[in-house]
């Protein structure tokens, strides 16, 4: 099993998700070719997931692939963009064709769930990691940034939080057949592209909740130079998750936005205020999201 | 020194290469925002470079950054595309701000040399690696693929070969001040965007020489279902490089194209023929490019 054979297998299992519609040329040449949409801006982001840092290496490769795609795609949703194409760079310790096949199937399913394509990639041998580069589009000038929050805006979250963190906290990686609801929060996050039209129409600022509610809300406050006041009683929790999971746990990939409008289907957890910092139940709190180099002096 | 401080330093040293002109929003939000050009297709590729596999970890970080950018950008040139934006995902074993600063300067210089932008990225802690996702554009439908070579085409290369391989073969990594010419071949490859107009106008097939002349010519032959006949006496060599360096060494990032036209400034090394395989001085030869999983049964 050499590199090119492994790539061929991988692409085979991507099936119709490697090329089609706006993706005119998929894997196999020096680069992929994608049609742009007149009047639209491009939106682009990249994420790396390392084995045993961002996911347990003993997890099912299907789940690792699915999650890796969604975690990265979520950044596009947070801008109000629709996904167009994805590139993935895999580093694998060994050429296990069964493992790679399952990974590709998970990635293809995530691509299908988001109506996008995985049209290019790279394969190297080394410590297990997965870097996913995601590219979307939105009508020119309509990107929803972190920096637009205004005093008086309501703060909304798009769904219940803390489930993925509860899964991580319990090291709840084992399953024989079906994923539990808590495990689904971690392994099957769903990038909220169903909400991007509403975001573009209504939101002044938005972010996806990847580092934890407090850390991500702090990013909005910093970028917008405002403060936030939130109420713990209003924070929606996944069943089995605690408040701390939601505040500091991350990995939920729900969206957070600020707006002057009333949003049905979202949960209002507080309000943007003048000043700085985050105030939870009238007490100032510090964000404690995941920080890769936090332990280094 | 935490993750966000390190990112801030890194972005600071990217300077004007992080945002500008068609890059409307650079690092700092969930994703970057880039203007598309009406009537143009997007062209996209991704590459991973691992420490001590693709570059010596003891090399200067400036050179690692410069080379990592160019190696990846070269895939766009091979399609006949102009570069538009780059995303980079870095995995670093420690938070060495001096090292990261130098790396960023090397990346910024490569971006400047190609008139492009490094507008987004990701930083994680782990074994040293650099994944670079490159995105370009070309007039719709004008991409130069590997699959277009026709019987009777001349085979051209854009410059002398083998220099980078000679550097690798000699493990010639050490320098106190100036890079030697051979070291420049390895550490300062130049993606040949100066040739993309000519490629789009004249070439039927093209590829960049990253795996070695034989391996990359074989990719064109396989994709085009043709054979190639080349003449060793015509292969241009970097001074200090041997024929084997050029044939099997890779890392040169010159372009190879096939065309019915006569190309000034390029070197004709042979001709596309009917059949299959590569014939060097009338003997059939096997491509031996770098293969990451080649050692695995």
Number of strands of chain A: 13
CATH topology of the largest domain in chain A: Phosphoribosyl-aminoimidazole Synthetase, Chain A, domain 2
- Count of separate DSSP helical elements of chain A: 8
| Most extensive chain-chain interface | A-B, 73 and 73 residues
CATH architecture assignment name of the largest domain in chain A: Alpha-Beta Complex
The main sheet of chain A comes to:
7 strands, mixed
| SSE series of chain A | HEEEHEHEEEHHHEHEHEEEE
Give the integer mean of the pLDDT values of chain A: 93
Assigned CATH superfamily of the largest domain in chain A: PurM-like C-terminal domain
Low-confidence segments of chain A: none
CATH class of the largest domain in chain A: Alpha Beta
Roughly what percent helix of chain A? Answer: 25-40%
The coarse overall form of chain A would be globular
Oligomer: homodimer
**Compute the gyration radius of chain A: what is it?**
19 Å
> How much of the sequence of chain A is in beta strands?
25-35%
Largest sheet, spatial ordering of strands of chain A: 8-10-7-11-9-12-13
How many domains of chain A, as an integer? Answer: 2
Structural class of chain A: alpha+beta
Q: Whole-Å distance between the termini of chain A? A: 44 Å
